[in-house]
Amino acid sequence: MGDPIPQHSSRKPPLKLRKLYVPDDVIHHLMEISELAEKAKTSQEDDELLADRAPSKYVDPILGTLMTEPVLLPSSNVIVDRSVIAKHLLSDPIDPFNRQPLQMSDVIPQHDLTNEIMKWRTEELSKIANASSISSRNVDGSVK
After folding, report:
1. Do strands 78-81 and 108-109 pair parallel, antiparallel, or not at all (unpaired)?
2. What is the rounded distance in angstroms from the CA atom of residue 51 to the CA atom of residue 89?
């Protein structure tokens, strides 16, 4: 069998995997993948919650998601998220707002807005974490 599961792992492998005689290194890799998937799910849930709370200028007008890398479409003067417009341009090389030809090299990064969104996102996540911490305490200050 492979190496034992490192002590830093916070979870034990499911009993089903141990009964199947899956090598320890494979179990370790599967557990790492599971933890990464859980983090990605949490991040996506955070972004969905934040998009609902975000000022409209932080939200991509195509998908309604919180932008992470806003860019200006020069012919329509609309700001969208880079990943969203990149996917759109793969299938249709036009500005979706005015049907003018558009290439990724035409879009203009909005660095100040990116920084503003990241600052807002950090502050909002901190507020959510603090609110969650407060709501998990009893009136006397002890944790529920």
Report:
1. unpaired
2. 23
- Beta strands 70-73 and 78-81, pairing class: antiparallel
Query: What secondary structure does DSSP assign to 13-82, as a single string?
Result: PPHHHHHTT--HHHHHHHHHHHHHHHHHHHHHHHHHHHHHHS-GGGB-TTT-PBPSSEEEETTTTEEEEH
Kind and range of the H or E run holding 131 = helix 111-135
Identify any residues that bridge with 100 across adjacent strands, giving them in sequence order: none
Integer Cα distance of 77 and 115 in angstroms: 20
Residues pairing with 73 in the sheet? 78
pLDDT in tens, 89-102: 999 999 999 999 99
Torsion angle, CA of 63/65/119/97, rounded to 10 degrees?
10
Cross-strand pairs, 94: 101
pTM here is: 0.62
